């Protein structure tokens, strides 16, 4: 509407110039100049207001965009956490793969935090355009998203700790089992290669001492076997899976 009056103001200026050629009265020029200034001031204010509204509209569009983006990030993160929690307790290779996935997710936390910051910033720029109830709804959205982001960050850390602990226990279990199996194989081979004594007392005593030593080792290994059995019961308890 204001722009449509531009030609009228220009026409008034032309009329003023024509009058000034025929009259020495400066009042006409002064009034015309004042009118032009008022028009220019009004036009500048309106254009500035329009520019501001356009920027705020962009900010609201950004609010909707960043809200959608961070919700997508949160949904993907929660899906990854759930997927990494549903893992067989007896497969250390799979567990380590899940750890790598969670570490990748952990590395993307700054991305989620940046999206949240952009969401807050766009809200700050555009919220005043809306009635109080709408502002309250938008603020509640931000609060809920902040809580969800905190929950995801805690969930990532907790899942990583649990999986690393689980993998370490499995690796320790497998190492203990390997050592016991090696000892069993070595000990069994001794019995397969027992020398003939030919009734010689010296050879009998030597063999007896050797067997007593093996018996002592077996007693010591009993503790390792009990620990291995207990750890197996804890790791592979069906009721805990």
Task: Describe what you observe in this structure.
- With 241 residues, this protein is mostly helical.
- The chain has a single domain (1-193), classed as Up-down Bundle (Methane Monooxygenase Hydroxylase, Chain G, domain 1).
- Helix content is 86%, strand content 0%.
- The protein has six helices and no strands.
- It has helices at residues 6-22, 26-85, 92-107, 109-126, 132-192, 201-235.
- α3 runs antiparallel to α5.
- It is rod-shaped and about 145 Å long.
- The mean pLDDT is 77.
List the helices and strands and how they pair.
Layout: H1 6-22, H2 26-85, H3 92-107, H4 109-126, H5 132-192, H6 201-235
Overall spatial form? rod-shaped
Biggest pleated sheet? none
Please count the beta strands (DSSP E, at least 2 residues each).
0
Q: How many helical elements?
A: 6
Distance between the termini: 73 Å
In CATH, the topology is named Methane Monooxygenase Hydroxylase, Chain G, domain 1
Structural class: mainly alpha
Q: What CATH first level would be assigned? A: Mainly Alpha
As a whole number of angstroms, the C-alpha radius of gyration is 42 Å
């Amino acid at each position: 509407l204001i722009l449509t009056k531009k030609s009228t103001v220009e026409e008034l200026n032309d009329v003023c110039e024509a009058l000034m050629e025929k009259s020495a009265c400066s009042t006409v020029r002064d009034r015309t100049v004042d009118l032009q200034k008022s028009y220019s001031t009004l036009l500048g204010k309106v254009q500035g207001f329009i520019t501001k509204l356009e920027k705020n509209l962009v900010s609201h569009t950004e609010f909707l965009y960043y809200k959608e983006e961070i919700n997508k990030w949160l949904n993907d993160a929660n899906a990854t956490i759930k997927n990494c929690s549903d893992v067989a307790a007896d497969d250390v290779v799979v567990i380590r793969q899940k750890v790598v996935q969670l570490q990748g997710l952990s590395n993307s936390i700054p991305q989620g935090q940046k999206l949240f910051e952009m969401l807050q910033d766009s809200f700050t720029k555009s919220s005043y355009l809306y009635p109080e109830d709408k502002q309250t709804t938008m603020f509640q959205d931000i609060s809920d998203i902040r809580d969800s982001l905190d929950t995801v960050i805690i969930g990532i850390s907790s899942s990583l700790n649990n999986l690393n602990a689980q993998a370490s226990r499995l690796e320790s279990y497998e190492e203990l089992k390997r050592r016991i199996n090696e000892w069993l194989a070595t000990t069994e081979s001794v019995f397969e290669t027992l020398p003939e004594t030919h009734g010689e007392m010296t050879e009998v005593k030597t063999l007896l001492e050797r067997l007593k030593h093996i018996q002592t080792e077996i007693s010591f290994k009993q503790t390792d076997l009990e620990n291995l059995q207990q750890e197996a019961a804890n790791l592979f308890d069906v009721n805990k899976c």
